[in-house]
Specification:
The protein is mainly α. Helices cover about 60% and strands about 0% of the residues. The chain has one domain.
């Protein structure tokens, strides 16, 4: 017996290659909403904080204006840590100085570019009914390795650039 494809219900969407990409037919869990709200909050906070502080002229230490402690590695050894300059770089990028942000600490510029894009992706997927947590959980090892690798490359740049 032949089945007419026009008889399919509108709810029968084609299956995705990635678990978590199919529209949820059930209530998404707390992890989904935590990821979504964390991304939206991080993007908003990045913009807000970058306008509340002034980039430190040294190229690092901007985070101290937020009441955070100075970098102990830099203070004790004069060697910048992998995060030295990221807050300064983010601040410069959000304030419209991308070249200076890149020269200060490339990872900060990458953060400014990637975080809003990731947030937009997450909101779009949420609207489509995708469980964001299940979707990123499958690739989290790959994302973590890529992020750490990129941070290491940027740290080497910071070590060489001084």
């Amino acid at each position: 017996m032949l089945v007419d494809s026009s008889d399919q219900s509108p709810d029968s969407a084609p299956a995705s290659d990635w678990p978590g990409d199919e529209p949820s037919r059930f209530r998404r869990g707390l992890p989904h909403y935590l990821v979504l709200s964390s991304l939206v909050g991080a993007s908003a906070s990045m913009v807000l904080l970058a306008y509340l502080v002034e980039p430190d002229e040294r190229g690092y230490g901007t985070h101290e204006q937020l009441g955070l402690a100075p970098c102990l590695l830099k203070e004790w050894t004069n060697i910048p840590c992998p995060g030295c300059g990221v807050t300064t770089s983010v601040t410069l990028a959000v304030q419209g100085h991308p070249v200076q942000a890149f020269l200060t600490q490339p990872f900060g510029l990458v953060t400014v570019l990637a975080l809003p894009l990731l947030t937009i992706w997450a909101v779009m997927r949420h609207v489509q009914g995708v469980d964001i947590y299940r979707r990123i959980e499958l690739r989290k090892g790959r994302w973590v390795r890529a992020g750490l690798g990129l941070m290491a490359v940027c740290w080497v740049y910071k070590l060489i650039a001084g």
